[in-house]
Amino acid sequence: MSNQLLDRVVAEIADEMAQRADRGAVASYIPELARVDPRRFGLVVIDAAGHVAAAGDADVPFSIQSISKVFTLTLALGKAGDRLWRRVGREPSGSAFNSIVQLEHERGIPRNPFINAGAIAVTDLILSGHQPREALGEILRFLQFLAGDSSIVIDDAVAKSEQRTGFRNAALANYMKSFGVLDNPVEYTLGVYFHHCAIAMSCRQLAMAGRFLAHNGQNPSTGHNVVSSERARRINALMLTCGHYDGSGEFAYRVGLPGKSGVGGGVLAVAPGNASIAVWAPGLDAAGNSHLGRVALEALTKRMGWSIFGV
Ligand code: GLN
């Protein structure tokens, strides 16, 4: 199935991004991520008919980092349903992704599943009743299934790099543990968390994996029902309000789509009914979100008329 308009828009945007000098700075607090070339750029859009429009480094795997939190949230909701909301909230934080301040005021309950503290609490729930290796295998297999691609792996160097330096995440986990919010040994939960953040995927694989969110919980090509339409809608709502941390308001204002960023420079965005979109540009803005990723998505939604708030 062809979509010439989409192909043209995606190619145009990739060309425009290649000319830009403003790229932001790659994440350096995870040493392994500091080595990534800031000139990388990939964009893949998969429309409702399954047409794939791809440009730039569309097939180069990168560290998905916090984008993994969308998929761990989906798995945890499948396991615990609404019980999940006893240990994590659903409000935007207005704070940095690794902030600890609100945990003190809210008795160790993180604001939402996408800030680090919230994602660690979600990971702890997935881990319960399993060995860390099994929990990690479940997360990885879920992504392989969604993307229809069994070649997706964890980048062990990135996981180890974060394990050596992730003192802030260790602080968050220990703090939550002191309030009884985590059930498992902190080092196990953190180990699974660091490893799922270190999953490496290309824009093509990521856009494939996000299709169920764009189409009421179903992958339209395979007919697989991943989650109910209600659950897909709610995950999208959380991505819109919390997916870019304290940059979520700006992302909604400029792009107008549910989206989830990662400090590897990737963004997964969902145009409900229209498309699943993955973009990768490693340079970040001050809130830790991909700078050119946001610029590219703003251009895409404008030209395609895909903002959920109107054309
Ligand atoms: N693994 C990263 C961390 O915990 C994820 C953060 C992100 O992508 N925003 O710091």
Molecules bound to protein: glutamine
**N-to-C series of helices and strands:** HEEEHHHHEHHHEHHHHEEEH
- Cα radius of gyration in angstroms: 18 Å
Runs in which pLDDT lies below 50 for 5 or more consecutive residues are: none
CATH topology of the largest domain: Beta-lactamase
CATH superfamily of the largest domain: DD-peptidase/beta-lactamase superfamily
Query: Separation of termini?
Result: 25 Å
GO molecular function: glutaminase activity
Binding site for substrate: 66, 116, 162, 169, 193, 245, 263
Organism: Rhodopseudomonas pentothenatexigens
InterPro entries: Beta-lactam/transpept-like, Glutaminase
What's the helix and strand layout?
Elements: H1 4-19, E1 42-47, E2 52-56, E3 62-63, H2 68-80, H3 101-105, H4 116-127, H5 132-147, E4 153-154, H6 156-165, H7 167-178, H8 186-197, E5 199-201, H9 203-209, H10 211-214, H11 229-242, H12 248-254, E6 259-261, E7 266-271, E8 275-280, H13 291-304
Antiparallel strand pairs: 1-2, 1-8, 3-5, 4-5, 6-7, 7-8
Helix pairs in contact: 1-13, 2-4, 4-7, 4-8, 5-8, 5-9, 6-8, 7-8
The structure holds glutamine.
Brief description of this entry?
This protein has helices at residues 4-19, 68-80, 101-105, 116-127, 132-147, 156-165, 167-178, 186-197, 203-209, 211-214, 229-242, 248-254, 291-304, and strands at residues 42-47, 52-56, 62-63, 153-154, 199-201, 259-261, 266-271, 275-280. The chain is α+β, with helices and mostly antiparallel strands and 311 residues long.
